[in-house]
C-alpha cells in the first residue's frame, strides 16, 4: 500500500472539509504548491488533489495551481473535482496528471465512460463516494439509489483500472475507515482500489492491510496530517508493513 496525502483546493487555498460539507471548512495553507512540496519532502510517493470549487460548481477552477504542482514535484498526482467534459480531462493530460478522477460523469453514463477509457487509457479513474453503501454525487450533496458496489462492477467492466472509494460518513472525522465497506469493495472488483475516509492513524493503515487484498493499492490521508494527529512518515511505515 501507498499513502497519498490530500491537497484539497478551495478559493486558491489548501483546505479540509468535514464530511464534505462546504460550511465545515478549515484553511491550512494559502500556498497549495508549497504544501504539496512539503508532503513530498516528508516522503509522499503520490498526491491526491481535489478541486473542491470544481466539485461544487461543476467546472474546474484550479487548473494553474494543479499544473504547477505536477510540474514542480515530478511525482504521480491524481486529480478530481468537476471533470464534466472531455476538454477538462485533456487539460489534465496536458498538465501531466497521472489519474483524472471522474465522479458524477461516470455515474451518468457507462457508455461515455467506456469511450473515455478508450480515448485516454489508464488516466481515467473513477471516484465512488458513498454513504451507507449508496453513491453520492455533485460534491456529496446528492445521494443516489445506486449501490457503490454495483457502480464499481460497471466501472471495471468499462475498463477502468483504479477506483477511489470514499466513505463520506467517515471522511474528515478521524475515527478510522469503514473496513466492512472497504472489504466489500475489494471483493467486488479486481482493479486497484484506493481507500478514502477516516484513515487517520498508523493502526488504521495496518487494519486496511490486514484485510488482505492485493488490489487495495493505497489510502488517502488528509485531516490527521494537517492537524498533526500523526505524521506522514508513520503512516508510510505502516503502509510498508
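-> sequence recovered:
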Amino acid at each position: 500500500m501507498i499513502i497519498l496525502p490530500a491537497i484539497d483546493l478551495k478559493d486558491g487555498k489548501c483546505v479540509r472539509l468535514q464530511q464534505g460539507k462546504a460550511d465545515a471548512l478549515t484553511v491550512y495553507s494559502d500556498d497549495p504548491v508549497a504544501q504539496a512540496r512539503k508532503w513530498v519532502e516528508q516522503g509522499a510517493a503520490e498526491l491526491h488533489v481535489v478541486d473542491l470549487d470544481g466539485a461544487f460548481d461543476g467546472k474546474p477552477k484550479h487548473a494553474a495551481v494543479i499544473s504547477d504542482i505536477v510540474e514542480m514535484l515530478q511525482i504521480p498526482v491524481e486529480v478530481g473535482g468537476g471533470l464534466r467534459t472531455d476538454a477538462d480531462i485533456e487539460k489534465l493530460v496536458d498538465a501531466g496528471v497521472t489519474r483524472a478522477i471522474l465522479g458524477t460523469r461516470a455515474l451518468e453514463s457507462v457508455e461515455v465512460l467506456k469511450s473515455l477509457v478508450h480515448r485516454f487509457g489508464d488516466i481515467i479513474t473513477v471516484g465512488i463516494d458513498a454513504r451507507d453503501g449508496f453513491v453520492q454525487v455533485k460534491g456529496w450533496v446528492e445521494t443516489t439509489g445506486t449501490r457503490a458496489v454495483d457502480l464499481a462492477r460497471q466501472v471495471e467492466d468499462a475498463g477502468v483500472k483504479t477506483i477511489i472509494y470514499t466513505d463520506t460518513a467517515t471522511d474528515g472525522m478521524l475515527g478510522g475507515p469503514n473496513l466492512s465497506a472497504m472489504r466489500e469493495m475489494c471483493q467486488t472488483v479486481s482493479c486497484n482500489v484506493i481507500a478514502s475516509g477516516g484513515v487517520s492513524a498508523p493502526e488504521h493503515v495496518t487494519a486496511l492491510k490486514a484485510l488482505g487484498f492485493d488490489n487495495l493499492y493505497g489510502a488517502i490521508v488528509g485531516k490527521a496530517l494537517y492537524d498533526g494527529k500523526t505524521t506522514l512518515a508513520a503512516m508510510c511505515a505502516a503502509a510498508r508493513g
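The mean pLDDT is 93.
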